[in-house]
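Q: We require from you a single protein entry containing the residue sequence and its fold in token form, and nothing else.
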Amino acid sequence: MNLRSRKRICSWVLLILCPLLLICGCGSGEDNSGSQLDSGGSYSQSETALENDSMEAGEAEGTGADEASGEDPGKKTEKAEETAAKPQPEINTEMLIYTCTLKIDTLDYETSVNTFRQMLNNAGGFVEKEKYSDGLSSQEYYIEDSEKTKSYNATVRVPQNQYETFLSGAGQLGDVRSKESNVENVNQEYTDLGTSLGIYEAKEKRYIKMLADITDDKHAISIEKELTELQIKIAQIKTRMNEIKTDVNYSTIKLTIREVSKYEETPEKTDTFMQRLGATIKDTFKTFLLFMETLLFFIIRISPYAIIILLILLLVLFLQKRNKMKSSKEEDTDDSKDTTNIE
């Protein structure tokens, strides 16, 4: 075989092998891409599996925690609602001070005052301050008994457990015109005072111990001064605490009983002009009569002194006039003597 034939055979071999090589290359590319896709898919599946496993583990932990605590997960909401609906703690009402102001009108003054005293005695209370008045004023010099408006003002203390009972019986004293009650909680103040007292008393003990061991006079005097101030503070705190105890144990009631001729259930209506005019004229006339009455009584009261003063004035005028007349006569006599001597 010559050279030319060999070259021709090689060319045909190459022509046949090139398509085969191309086909093999494409197949291997498809296999590689398929393997890559398969590997990517398996990776995503593994991630999803891990996430699912972690979620299941979390749920298992939550369930295990609920089971370990002995609580059903379904009861958590109910427990939260019960906690929210649970009422708040009540206010400490151990240190309450009750006070009340009462104003009562009565038709029978003496009976009402006596009944009040009997009620106070039955409740175990006591009178702290009281005042009587028969209605007289400094501008009225005389008034009839029937026109007097007696009044009784008192500040009393009753035990706290009898406070409400005592007030409920106030209606039997007369017509209750006004009632004002007040409650003050001093529990916090009393607690703070107790804490301060404990601190000061502990400090007092230290000062007393220090004072026993001090030999320097100046230092001892300084400690004694501080100890004295400290003891004064302790005494003030104890006094205040005793006051609070008294106010808590015995409620305060301020009472006014006023005598009236009749009960006025509704106030007088003075809405129209004529009614207001009539009321004004009536009040003015009443005030004028009171003024004239006061003036008359004043004149009657000062009349004895006025008569004496008038007599004294008349006597002085009479003496002055007599002395003047006497002086005039003496002057006339002197003039006549002078005239005679000249002649």
Notes: Residues 336 and 342 are 10 Å apart (CA to CA). Helices lie at 3-69, 75-85, 109-123, 163-168, 187-213, 217-249, 273-342. The longest strand covers residues 96-106. Residues 273-342 form the longest helix (70 residues).
